[in-house]
Design goal:
Length: 89
Amino acid sequence: MVTGFVCFFIYKFGRNSLKKYMKYIPSMVFAISIVLFYLKMVLLSKGYEGILDIVMIINLSVVLFISILLALIMELWLWNKKRNGEMEQ
C-alpha cells in the first residue's frame, strides 16, 4: 500500500518536471520497498517473521534488477533512435 502511494505521489507531482526519469520510477519504488522491508525486519519482526521478510527482500531485489535492466534498455533504445535521427524533437 505504501509502495502504491509513493508511486502515485511521484507520478502525480513529478509528471511535468521528471519526464526524463519516468522510466526509473518503478525502480525507485522497489528500492524504497526493499528499505522499508529491511526496517520492518530489523525493528518489528519477531520469531519467524524475519524469514518471510528476507524472502520478500530477495523477491523485490530480483524485480528491482529487472526494472532497472528494462529502463536501461529503453534508454539505450531511445538514445539510438535519437542518434540515428528517427525521433522528432
